Each structure stands twice: as C-alpha cells, then as structure tokens.
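Please supply some protein, with fold tokens.
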Amino acid sequence: MSVKGCRFFWILCVDVDEFFVYPHCDTRSLDALTDWLDASSIRSFGTMLLDMYPKGEIQDAKCSEGEDPIEIAPYFDAGNYSYSLNAKYKNLWIQGGPRQRVFFAEKPSFGPALNKIPLVKWGRANMFVSSTHVILPRSLNVVYATDGSQIISGCLLHAKFLDTFVDLAKDKELCSQHYAGGREYKYYEKLSNVEANLFTPQSTKYQNWQQLRDLGLMSSGGWA
C-alpha cells in the first residue's frame, strides 16, 4: 500500500536460531496473519523470546543437518518472568527464563531482554534501535494492551542451547560483537569449567502454540 508517497510492506526479521510461532500457525499462513493485522489496523506484532533447552547437558545436545533443533532442545520455563515498561521507548521489557535463573541469579537486572517485535509493517521512517527489541517510531513498540484487553502476540522459540553454544561462549572475539561489548556472554564463561544443565523438575516440554497461549506466554487476541 502507499500512504503519502511512502511505501509500506510487511517484514519478518528473526535470527537464524529463532522459530516464529503465532496463533493458528499450524493451519493459517503468514499472509493470513498479516491480512488480519492490516484489517485490524495493527502495524507491529510483538513476541516473547522463549529460550529452549535440552534435558541434560547442553554439550550433549547435538543437532545434525536436517534435524529439528526444537526436538533436540524441547524444554522451556513456563514461569519466572518479569515485565516492566521502558518509559523512553514505550516497549514492554521482559526478563527471566533459564538464562536469568542460571547465569544471572546474582544480578537479575543484567539478564537478557526477551521482548522482540519481529513482524512490522515497514516504512521509510522505521528503524530498529536495539536489534528487534526496540523500534522507531515509538508507537510501534506498543504491542501490549493498556485497557485490560488482549492484543495478539506470539513467541520466538530460541534454539540457542545446543552443543554449539559451548564453543560460542568461549569465543571472546565473537562474543564481544554482541550488546554492551558482549557483557552477557561474560556470564557464560562458567561453561569453560562447568557442564551447564538448564533442566529442572519444573521445566515444560513444548507441544504447540495453543499450549503457549494457555500458559499466558502469547495471545490470539481477537483472531478467533
């Protein structure tokens, strides 16, 4: 569509280890989702980054070519998340999950941000400020309800904790390229001496998008 000479189009921006899950993704196409968002005058679609991990040592979670990494690391934390509002950019800041409870237990405020806006109706005035965690203009960051209702949202299944993560956490040069000079990865250095196991008796095995909706980790909004 064209508005005042500007070209708008939908973009989906995800990392190679992120798997986009949205309401009805098992039966409805991405085009069906964006058509519904257009009809609902919604220009940005928020998601929660859900860290997936194996049952056992991370270094033993080997994913060969052609295998589904979510089948290798099918577990996630169903709770222990905190939400706060970023007054500057109006985005909802989400923290918690296995990375915070294992690597950032002593400094939880340093835990990674789990809020992302990967699906956006893009125009020339848009820009990502910090990966897909924050976007401009700020109005696109309001992917949450302020009146007690529910706005449609999804999840990004984050297949980070496979055996390759052990070597990545030890690569100081590569890690320094990440946010804040790789501050987050400095907390992962314990993997050099300890075999990390994120699994607990409270860990939940992934089933489908309906499960995530029922747990309150995403919402189908008004898309019945």
